[in-house]
Amino acid sequence: MQHKTSAWPLAGAYALLIVYASLYPFSGWRNQEIPPWEFLFAGWPKYWTVFDLVANVIGYVPLGFLLALSFMRRGNVRYFATHPNLASIAVALVAGTALSFVMEAVQTFLPSRVASNVDFGLNVSGTLIGAITATGLELGGAIDRWSRFRERWFIPHARGALVLLALWPFALLFPAAVPLGLGQVLERLETAVAEWLEETPFLEWMPLREVELQPLVPAAELLCVGLGAFIPCLLGYTILRSARHRAVFAVVAVALGASVTALSAALSWGPQHAWAWLSMPVRVGLLFGLVLAMLMLAVPRRGCAAVLLLVLVIHLAVLNQAPASAYFTVTLQEWEQGRFIRFHGLAQWLGWLWPYAVLVYVLLRVSRREAPPTIPA
Q1: In 3-state terms, what secondary structure has residue 26?
Q2: In this predicted model, what pLDDT tens digit does every residue of 275-295 receive, in sequence order?
Q3: Cross-strand bridge partners of residue 154
Q4: Phi/psi zone of residue 153: left (φ > 0), alpha (ψ -120 to 50 degrees), beta?
Q5: pLDDT band for position 335 (50/70/90)?
Q6: Are 215 and 322 in contact (CB under 8 A)?
Q7: For site-directed labelling of 17, which of 92, 203, 214, 262 has its Cα 20 to 30 A away?
Q8: What's the superkingdom here (predicted)?
């Protein structure tokens, strides 16, 4: 029997993360006139760190876990009835091995990356560890308990929202001009379009900004933070079954958003600055977002979806009147020169695009008729 599972789209999203992390910065391609599989026969790399070794293992563990889990939960194991769990491990291992091999081979053409058989072996090991972990949890009944929990808490067609909610903390990792302010793209979009149209007659069609963007006043910052905390709560409300579940989810979501923002600040500016962003407008904004979430506990799911659309539009409109963070350049340099080079760009893109993905998802949700779900026994 096939199950609706979020593991498959999450596995696809994580595979894209690996591609981005492996090939960033996607520039300087050159042909060294050596076979792309030559790295398999190279010796131990000259330069390496313990962090690199651990990162290459850990980086592929979620991929192996999600691939094996999606294979099991979608019912594909029925084609391998003799040893279904071994089949799940094998499929995940083959897919992870193929992806790692392709990434290492393509790195042969990038001057800033070095293809390595050690990295390849560690990636394969990470995939295997993740796949074994997934099958172990399946045998131990943990996956079934999650399935029962999901059936009690969420409506059947919750996969898209669950994937977006799972990506939300990662989108918060890259520092933003306003805490919890995702989707701030207007200023950079204008600059990018102007650069593309440079030396063309179409540049004159671009609207000229008469004044530079100014930092948000405290009231506007409070509104942005509050709506930024309110948005994931509303997204969860569109798939949660009861008001009690909504109340628990809202508290957890706001606490998680604050915690991840603190982690982002600690990674960017040091642990001593982890809570430096928590000014009075931000604290009131977090409380404001939580109060709004509590006021919406009894609103039907389609009503929550409609309010979510309105809140998204207001949040993006106000947020995009703020300039990029004054610390953006310094932060970007720190991330690029440090250990975050493989992930800073992806976190940044998630922070830019996540609200717009939610906007598209909710528009699709409200545009189709939804049958009332049954409460499981």
Answers
A1: coil
A2: 888 889 999 999 999 999 999
A3: 240
A4: alpha
A5: very low
A6: yes
A7: 262
A8: Bacteria
Q: Sign of dihedral through CA atoms 253, 255, 256, 262?
A: positive
**What pairs with residue 240 in β-bridges?**
154
- Which tokens in the block code for residue 214? 């100014």
pLDDT tens per residue across span 158-205: 888 988 998 899 888 877 888 898 888 776 666 666 666 667 776 666
Task: Identify residue 321 by its one-letter amino acid code.
Answer: Q
C-alpha closest to that of 92 among 119, 123, 66, 57: 66
Which tokens sit at 244?
């009690």
State how far the Cα of 359 lies from the Cα of 26, in Å rounded to an integer: 29
154: phi then psi, degrees, rounded to nearest 5: -120, 155
The amino acid that residue 284 corresponds to is V
DSSP structural state of residue 319: H
Q: What angle do CA 301, 305, 307 make, to 5 degrees?
A: 115
In this structure, what token pair is assigned to residue 300? Answer: 């039907």
The DSSP-derived string for 275-317 is TTT--HHHHHHHHHHHHHHHHTTTS-HHHHHHHHHHHHHHHHH
| C-alpha 339 chain-centroid distance | 18
Side chain identity, residue 332: L
What type of residue sits at position 123? N
Q: Is 72 helix (H, G, I), strand (E, B) or coil?
A: helix
- The Cα 352–Cα 251 span in angstroms is 24
Neighbours of 124 (CB within 10 A): 20
* C-alpha of 286 from chain center: 21
Residues 6+ apart with CB under 8 A from 287: 226
Q: For residue 209, what is the DSSP state?
A: P
Q: Which whole number is the average pLDDT over 6-27?
A: 78
- The C-alpha angle with vertex 206 and arms to 200 and 211, in degrees rounded to 5, equals 135
